Inverse folding.
């Protein structure tokens, strides 16, 4: 409970500050519209409280009302963030010009903030938000072809499909998972892996989705690791859902899967971490070693792995939020070669969290083709 209170305090403080700056940016537009100011402020206050109200409505089993408020509130979250980012750029430009204009007064004419800017910034944010609704539905397939000496030279290539960060729950349900399942079936993988955050929040929203997952039966099976949202949703229920969906859970352990050594680690949201290198025996390093790890972070000992598959950061989901997520996760988008020669692939995620919107960070399913180096 203390952690939740701290999280809510920090979140609501930052979210309120974001609204305050956006309101300051809109003031030139509202200055001559006295009657509009109060409704705008009241609506902003409601939207600040919306994420908390959604959870309260869920607890009261008012599913329809919670879903409607979530669609409005989380879509607004994307819009207000883009508006906030726009006004940050405007204010930063004007702040830069202020001291320069003392020495060259004509530069004052280049300041941006005013009624026209107060209209253009939210208009652009609205257009990007509308675009983002469609981008979030445009599920792409990212294909990696990786040669390796650790597959038999005369053998066939191996097709691995990665999904991550589906966030099944209040907003993403049957329609989203059906879309994902159909694309996976088209790809005909040998192995399916899920790198965390498959579920989100209350699990009573996803009753029946296990049937869709069970349709997927790749020859080498389906494996999953936990993400932070499995813990937020309730770990036991989340694990039950994944197991009923046919996934084998890798919780700080390794297992042989065909020609691969598959290693999975729990997300540190559970309050513990493991030395990943200790999960692989020296004798097993002759096998291509695939590490499933929710967060795209590198720890000492990664040289024992050939490829790490991760997710979590969504590439920020809404540009320019990627600049914020990059502070914690600099390797958040695509394939990276590490100093040891190992590879890390960070998925942008298959679904969305919060706003059902993506801007210049489309959702993905990842197809990894391992083939013998000849």
């Amino acid at each position: 409970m203390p952690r939740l209170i701290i999280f809510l305090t920090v979140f609501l403080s930052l979210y309120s500050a974001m609204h305050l700056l956006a309101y300051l940016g809109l003031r030139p537009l509202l200055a001559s519209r006295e009657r509009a100011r109060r409704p705008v402020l009241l609506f902003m206050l409601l939207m600040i409280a919306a994420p908390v109200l959604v959870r309260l409505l869920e607890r009261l089993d008012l599913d329809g009302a919670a879903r409607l408020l979530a669609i409005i509130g989380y879509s607004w979250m994307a819009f207000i963030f883009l508006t906030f980012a726009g006004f940050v750029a405007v204010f930063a430009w004007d702040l830069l010009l202020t001291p320069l204009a003392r020495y060259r007064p004509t530069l004052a004419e280049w300041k941006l903030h005013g009624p026209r800017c107060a209209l253009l910034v939210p208009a652009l944010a609205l257009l990007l938000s509308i675009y983002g609704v469609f981008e979030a539905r445009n599920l792409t397939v990212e294909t990696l072809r990786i040669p390796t000496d650790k597959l038999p030279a005369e053998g066939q290539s191996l097709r691995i499909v990665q999904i991550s960060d589906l966030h099944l729950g209040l907003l993403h349900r049957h329609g989203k998972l059906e879309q994902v399942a159909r694309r996976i079936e088209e790809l005909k993988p040998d192995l399916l892996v899920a790198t965390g955050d498959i579920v989100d929040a209350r699990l009573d929203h996803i009753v029946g989705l296990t049937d869709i997952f069970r349709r997927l039966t790749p020859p080498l099976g389906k494996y999953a690791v936990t993400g932070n949202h499995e813990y937020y949703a309730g770990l036991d229920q989340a694990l039950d859902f994944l197991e009923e969906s046919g996934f084998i859970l890798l919780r700080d352990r390794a297992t042989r899967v065909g020609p691969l050594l598959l290693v999975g680690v729990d997300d540190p949201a559970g309050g513990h971490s493991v030395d990943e290198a200790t999960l692989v025996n020296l004798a097993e390093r002759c096998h291509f070693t695939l590490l499933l790890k929710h967060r795209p972070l590198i720890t000492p000992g990664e040289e024992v792995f050939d490829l790490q598959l991760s997710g979590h950061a969504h590439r920020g989901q809404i540009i320019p939020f990627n600049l914020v997520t990059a502070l914690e996760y600099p390797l958040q988008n695509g394939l990276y070669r590490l100093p040891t020669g190992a590879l890390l692939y960070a998925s942008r995620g298959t679904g969305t969290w919060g706003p059902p919107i993506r801007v210049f960070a489309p959702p993905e399913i990842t197809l990894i083709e391992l083939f013998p180096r000849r």
